[in-house]
Amino acid sequence: MAAKKNYLKDFENYLLVEKGLSENSIFSYLSDLTKLNRFAQSHSRSLISLTRNDILEFLREESRRNLSSRTRARVIASLRQFYNYLEQNKVITQNPMTDVESPKVERHLPDYLTQEEIKKLFMVFNESDILELRDKTLFELMYSAGLRISEACQLKMQDVNLDQMQLRIIGKGGRERLVPFGDVAYELLQKYLSHSRPALATKPSPYVFISKKGGALNRKSAWRLLKRYIGRAQIKKKITPHTLRHSFATHLLQNNADLRAVQELLGHLDISTTQIYTHLVRSDLEKTHKKYHPRA
Fold first, then answer.
1. Which pTM does this prediction carry?
2. Which CATH number fits domain 115-292: 1.10.418.10, 1.10.10.10, 3.30.980.10, 1.10.443.10?
3. Which of the following CATH numbers is that of domain 2-88: 3.40.50.300, 2.60.120.260, 3.90.550.10, 1.10.150.130?
4. Known catalytic residue: 242?
């Protein structure tokens, strides 16, 4: 039993140190591998003794749970990464993931707020309230700079350059990028740093966005807060903090921004990840054509 745990622990360290993955990604990998480990134990086997047929049987059992193609693809990716790691480190000689195919994943277009909905959302905040000023600054900065919620919550004072209106962001895999932000975000940030943050920072903190208790604002709290403001703005779409990032990219492309520039601003390694937003813009144009053209 100890040996099995060590392989998973070693793999966890590998994902953290060498691959530089986020805590959420590592949790997903280990969750999938824990299920596989339970399957192996139920068959009196260890993870390193499983064969391709064992893996296929495990995947069949998982399929009976009515998992989406995206989830099944993620499980297979987790297993493949683990066994590739074992093979590279000469723990196994036969990789059981060889020729195990991933299902085709339907790519759904992400939802986004229109430019009118963005205006509507940012009108519902009360800037005279120190907490609402903080929240408005947080969400405006996310929309203005295309930040992930984790990047915004982990943003430190030393990473904000007000003079150049620029942020130093540490993204996925520890990759660093410099992103500009706009005039509206600049004015809000100045106001927040002058009035709201000093009142919230009851103890020293390196983070820009502070909770009521004086620590860093966490992602769950930010998501809960955004839901409240979306409800107040009476926007009916299913919105998450990531929707602001989707809106950022979509609005740039709607206004003819260069795709490569948007890729760099978002911190995407592969431009195919950024290209999903061109589909959003195209879909938007098709809707406009159908709605307004007399012969559509």
1. 0.65
2. 1.10.443.10
3. 1.10.150.130
4. yes
Q: How confident is the model at residue 3 (pLDDT cuts 50, 70, 90)?
A: very low
268 counts as catalytic: yes
- Token pair in block for residue 239: 């919105």
pLDDT > 70? residue 283: no
What's the mean pLDDT in 210-237?
Answer: 91
Burial class (CB in 10 A: 0-12, 13-18, 19+), 245: buried
Choice among 4, 35, 172, 177 that is catalytic:
172
Helices (H) and strands (E) in the chain, counts: 14, 3
Q: Which of 74, 136, 148, 197 is catalytic?
A: 148
Query: Residue 4: what pLDDT?
Result: 44
Q: At what angle do helices 52-63 and 23-42 cross, to 10 degrees?
A: 110
SS3 content of the chain, % helix, strand, coil (to 5): 60, 5, 35
172 is catalytic: yes
Active-site residue (options: 74, 197, 245, 251): 245
- For the chain, the structural domain boundaries read 2-88, 115-292
148 is catalytic: yes
DSSP string, 112-172: ---HHHHHHHHTS--TTSHHHHHHHHHHHHHHHHT--HHHHHT-BGGGEETTTTEEEEE-G
- Active-site residue, 52 included: no
